[in-house]
Each structure stands twice: as C-alpha cells, then as structure tokens.
Design brief:
By secondary structure, the protein is an alpha+beta fold. Helices cover about 30% and strands about 30% of the residues. The protein has three helices and ten strands; from the N terminus they run βββαβββααββββ.
C-alpha cells in the first residue's frame, strides 16, 4: 500500500481527518485517517488496538490495513466504508424501521461483545462512530478506537 492517491476529503474529528484514497496498482479504495501532529503520542494507544484487530478480525469491527508515515504525522489505513449512522438517519429517514433498528442493534452488540472479550471498552460509541458498509447489505462496523480503554488501565 505504498502508492495511495487522495481522491477526496471525507471528514474531520477532534484528533484527525479522514480522506478517501485509491491504491493505483490495485484500484482499491481505502479510508486514510491522518492524525493531527499534536496527538501522535495519543494515537499510539489506538495503533496498539488496531494491530490486535488486524490479527483477530470481526465482521462488525472496521478492518485495519496498516500504518503509514506521512510528512510530520502518521496515518492509519482502513477499509472504505459508506456512511455513518448519524448521516444515514439524516439522509435516509424513510429507510429506518423496526427491523433495521433491530439488525443494527444486534450487530453493534456483537461488535461490542467481541471487543469486551478482549477486555476493551470503546468509550466513544455514538452514531458517528458506527459505519454502514453499504446500503444494500445494511451491515455495520464500529470505528474510532482512539478513546478506548484497555483492561481498565487507560
């Protein structure tokens, strides 16, 4: 994943920004989380968790591909997901029904059960940190583990 080209800006959080990038050699798209240089030390905690999730994958946790150095900061490369729940609610209110809510809730609980089995607490679960993979499958994944607590120590 050396030849990533930025396609467009996707969003900004308190400690980072996210761009959609394309790997020219494969044509695959990814999300690149660019850590604000002031928070690089804080990001080491998240990197430790993401490295664990890279080895032990779960269908409801965002897939992490690796870390890259980028100018004076670091970047995390993730699978490109479609839309967060907050924006889904705003853009597609007519799609929300009891079956969808039950499906999303079940998937969130399965993702949380998985990380809890690893003694990890998300600590920042909100609609903006739950992503829909695509609108056809209605599969969701938890993202943003920067505020997570590991084994009650962080």
């Amino acid at each position: 994943m050396n030849n990533l080209v930025t396609i467009r800006h996707l969003g900004r959080g308190a400690f980072s920004s996210v761009d959609m990038v394309k790997e020219n050699s494969t044509g695959n798209y990814y999300a690149k989380k660019i850590i604000d240089p002031r928070y690089i030390k804080h990001s080491q905690h998240e990197l430790k968790l993401l490295s664990l999730f890279k080895k032990i994958r779960h269908k409801n946790i965002v897939r992490f591909f690796g870390k890259q150095n980028h100018r004076d900061t670091i970047c995390f490369i993730f699978e490109k997901l479609h839309l967060n729940l907050y924006n889904f609610y705003k853009q597609y209110p007519e799609n929300i029904n009891n079956n969808l809510i039950c499906s999303f809730t079940k998937q969130m609980l399965e993702g949380l059960e998985f990380i809890h089995s690893l003694f990890i607490i998300h600590a920042d679960l909100k609609p903006e940190n739950v992503m829909i993979t695509n609108l056809r499958d209605n599969q969701i994944k938890l993202i943003d583990f920067g505020s997570s607590i590991i084994n009650g120590t962080d």
